[in-house]
Amino acid sequence: MSSVPLPLSDADLESVLVDGLAEIERRLDVAVSRTRVLSDAPSRHLLAAGGKRMRPALALLAAQLGSGTSESVLEAAVGVELTHLASLYHDDVMDSAPTRRGAPSAHEVWGNSVAILAGDLLFARASQTVAGLGATAVRIQAETFERLCVGQLHETIGPQEGDDPVEHHLEVLAGKTGSLIAASAHFGALFGGLEGERLTAVVEYGERVGVAFQLADDVLDLTSTAEVLGKVPGTDLREGVPTMPVLLLRRSVAGGAEDAEGRETLADLEGDLSSDEALEAVVARLREHPVMEQAREMAREHARDAVAQLAPIEESPAKDALREFAQLVVERLA
């Protein structure tokens, strides 16, 4: 890796993370390349497409709150990133996403069956990696995998009668995104020697900053550019994927608010968005609606809550970086 996907103002800390990420990248390459040639290409597909490696970086950073980088920290970080990559294969199949990280999705190249099996293979590799770290690590991995699956199930099935769709969506984000970011922080802190309330604080930080990150992505899907997103703005709307601004709009309209513009926008959302012109028009209307600022504030609130969880942790450059990361997550919304 040529850079660290976290804000760092301490040169020594940056050097530690740069070296750690370079070693993790090497191990990831080995992990996806140790089977037959036939399965190597699909399993390497997303790794080769790149990525920020935010989760391994967070594991390394959490370890610096304690005793620092160790063999266990490196292996745990590899396991977390393999789990993340595996989940992307499955997500893309379920969402019929044509691209990922600027490249064709695996299912577009090899078909759904191969893409799903490639994801399964990476999940297996992640489990093998974590298995060498002891029973506690295996339990963390298993619980995280369960939450990923439950989060995807909840998103696929949708809220049931009597459920609040906004709260349901927050639970989905906690399962699909927050759980793995929390696991990254958990592994780093655990193998960095943190215990008790200090360990719990870092895990809670990871959960909340993960939800803030995904809430910010919900907003950016509507406000960013195709060049930045790697896809057409509003693609989630076209694919029927629930996002917080839309859910807040539905709540507002269902609550009887005097909002003619909102009602018209919601009607357009539920219409035919297959043409780029129709999609662009509804995205433009949503961008101007107050629900966008409400969604931004929800992301900011979760980021502030994440930082508040760090109260039991003594001051250090690593803690400063965790604060700065939470701020960076929501600064993207400016």
Automatic annotation (TrEMBL):
InterPro entries: Isoprenoid_synthase_dom_sf, Polyprenyl_synt, Polyprenyl_synt_CS. It comes from Serinibacter arcticus. It holds the Pfam family polyprenyl_synt. GO terms for biological process: isoprenoid biosynthetic process. Transmembrane segments: none annotated. It comes from the Bacteria. GO terms for molecular function: metal ion binding; prenyltransferase activity. This is Geranylgeranyl pyrophosphate synthase. Its cofactor is Mg(2+). Keywords: Magnesium, Metal-binding, Transferase. CDD domains: Trans_IPPS_HT (cd00685). PANTHER family: ALL TRANS-POLYPRENYL-DIPHOSPHATE SYNTHASE PDSS1, GERANYLGERANYL PYROPHOSPHATE SYNTHASE. Belongs to the FPP/GGPP synthase family. The keyword Aminoacyl-tRNA synthetase does not apply.
